[in-house]
Design goal:
- The complex is a heterodimer of chains A (about 290) and B (about 250).
- Chain A has about 290 residues and is mainly α.
- Helix content of chain A is about 75%, strand content about 0%.
- In chain A, helix 3 runs antiparallel to helix 8.
- With about 250 residues, chain B is an alpha/beta fold.
- The two termini of chain B are about 35 Å apart.
- Classes of the chains: A mainly alpha (about 290), B alpha/beta (about 250).
- Chains A and B meet through helix 7, helix 8 and helix 11 of A and helix 2, helix 3 and helix 6 of B.
Chain lengths: ~290, ~250
């Protein structure tokens, strides 16, 4: 026989080794995630209770709850999404459905990618300069939301674009061939099919927005503000900044430690819930797209 | 009889390369014309001229004169949406929408402003019957079109095209992705539909062209080599290229 047994054995051995290497590396990913989660949970779970979630901070943030920070983060998430979702989704639609392959399209894509690569602290500085100072919003929810929204815009655009690209072109052709306009085709065929994936992109950006500290540092976040905002021109506390403050520059960093872990746990929990929600939504709409 | 589609000295360029060369060809109403030829000969490109689907490709340039029902369809003010309502199309791969069977057929009506349920119901039933699919799906109109077999999906696509009352139906290799039994059903259907519609069908399958069409046009390298009554063209081709192709010597 021209194929020697040895070569085959060798081949199979290599296959086994490669497979195990891949397995080990993926295990490293999973294990480190579990390690982080259990570390935070172990240290933070003791302070989590109803009061922690619904009370104002007390005693120089060494006692009490984190209610204003939770509400502040929720406001910022909502505010940035109000801004980023329409602009991002419409831009994505424009790029993928309307522009032909030209220098203009490549330019927009290049710009979007560059926008995605800008460090978040730079967005913070830009937001401060434009929204806080030039436009005169001051340190406020609106300034913070716009800054955060600007930061996640590329994520929304790119995921919208990818979601639309994943819709097979034959569906567009079929719709157009039936006398539908381009707008009707996008609205009735393409968008419903792309919707589950667009949702995923939006949820990802919610996760990103809720955890970012740098963009809100100079635009909205308050060091200590034990009351809720009354308008979009007020400052708020926010979970990531609160975490930063009580870990580094609180009145008594050691005494605040449990609260810091509790805050981290709430933040992670929030992102986790949002992700689970995204999955549920995606599955729901994915099914609906097929059945409807 | 008056021609329903005419093309006069039509040239088509994809950028620099010429895909159709000086094609002059007419189509009679209520006939089936098969466009045959080897891959890349331009027959599908030619077919897509009639509902202006080539417009969707970047960098396409078209010269010459093309009329549908007596009207030049490449004028500046041509209503493309209305043209596509008149000239239906069935694609190579069945491509029903991810919607219910009913909504698939109703789609063309809805986008053209028909939303009254009684009208839709009547029209959907009529179209599905025309496409010989009604008996198989009448109890599951609300089910997803994806639950149908490939052959059923293709007949659904035909029903979808017929629902908006086109006068011409373009078919781009409509049975090439289907099994022999589904193919036979589609062919039978094409034969029956010609009493109401003008059908232009692109096919790779010469037997199919022989079975379903009244006229056959042979394309080669972007040129129209020969056109004639199907039986005559197959039995007694005038051009040596046609003869070589239909006897299987190339292609």
């Amino acid at each position: 026989m021209i194929i020697s047994k040895k070569v085959i054995q060798n081949k199979n051995l290599k296959e086994k080794i490669a497979f195990n290497i891949f397995r080990i590396f993926s295990a490293i990913v999973v294990l480190s995630l579990i390690a982080i989660l259990s570390f935070i949970t172990y240290n933070g779970i003791s302070v989590i209770n109803w009061n922690f979630l619904t009370q104002m901070p007390e005693d120089g943030m060494t006692k009490g709850g984190i209610y204003p920070a939770i509400i502040g983060t929720l406001y910022l998430v909502a505010g940035s999404m109000i801004f980023a979702i329409p602009i991002g989704v419409f831009s994505g639609i424009y790029i993928n459905e309307y522009t032909k392959d030209s220098w203009y399209k490549r330019f927009i894509k290049l710009m979007t990618n560059n926008l995605a690569g800008i460090p978040s602290i730079v967005f913070g500085l830009f937001g401060m300069s434009l929204f806080v100072n030039t436009l005169g919003f001051g340190d406020s929810i609106i300034a913070g939301s716009l800054t955060l929204g600007l930061m996640v815009l590329p994520v929304v655009i790119r995921t919208t674009e990818e979601a639309l690209k994943a819709v097979d072109n034959s569906f567009r052709l079929a719709s157009l061939a039936l006398g539908a306009t381009k707008l009707q085709t996008i609205r009735k065929v393409v968008l419903p099919m792309a919707f589950p994936n667009i949702i995923t992109g939006i949820i990802l950006s919610i996760g990103r927005v809720s955890g970012e500290t740098a963009p809100i540092l100079f635009t909205v976040a308050a060091y200590f503000l034990p009351k809720l905002p009354s308008s979009i021109f007020d400052q708020v506390m926010a979970l990531p900044y609160h975490l930063y403050v009580i870990s580094t520059s609180g009145t008594n960093v050691e005494a605040s430690r449990p609260i810091a872990y509790g805050t981290a746990l709430v933040l992670i929990g929030f992102v986790l819930i949002v992700n689970l929600l995204a999955n549920a939504l995606r599955r729901y709409f994915g099914k609906k797209v097929k059945m409807n | 009889m008056k021609n329903i589609i005419t093309t006069d000295k039509v040239n088509l360029f994809y950028g620099e390369s010429q895909a159709l060369k000086d094609i002059t060809l007419d189509f009679l109403p209520n006939t089936v014309t098969a466009l045959i030829g080897p891959s890349g000969c331009g027959k599908s490109t030619y077919l897509r001229l009639f509902n202006r689907m080539n417009d969707l490709i970047d960098n396409v340039k078209i010269t010459g004169n093309i009329t549908v029902e007596g009207e030049n369809i490449y004028q500046k003010d041509t209503n493309i949406v209305e043209l596509r309502r008149k000239v239906g199309m069935v694609f190579q791969k069945p491509n029903p929408f991810p919607k219910s069977i009913f909504e698939n057929v109703a789609y063309g009506l809805r986008v053209n402003g028909v939303n009254e349920m009684s009208v839709l119901k009547e029209k959907v039933e009529f179209s599905l019957k025309q496409a010989a699919l009604w008996d198989e799906v009448k109890d599951k109109l609300k089910k997803s079109a994806f639950e149908l077999s490939g052959g059923q999906q293709q007949r659904l696509c035909i029903a979808r095209a017929l629902a908006i009352e086109p006068s011409i139906v373009l078919m781009d290799e409509p049975a090439s992705a289907l099994d022999p039994i589904s193919t036979a059903k589609i062919e039978e259907l094409i034969y029956e539909l010609k009493s109401k519609y003008t059908i232009v069908i692109v096919t790779h399958n010469l037997q199919q062209a022989g079975r379903v069409s009244d006229y056959t046009a042979f394309f080669y390298l972007g040129e129209l080599i020969e056109k004639g009554i199907t039986k005559e063209l197959f039995i007694n081709p005038k051009n040596i290229k046609t003869q070589n192709y239909i006897t299987g010597r190339f292609g």
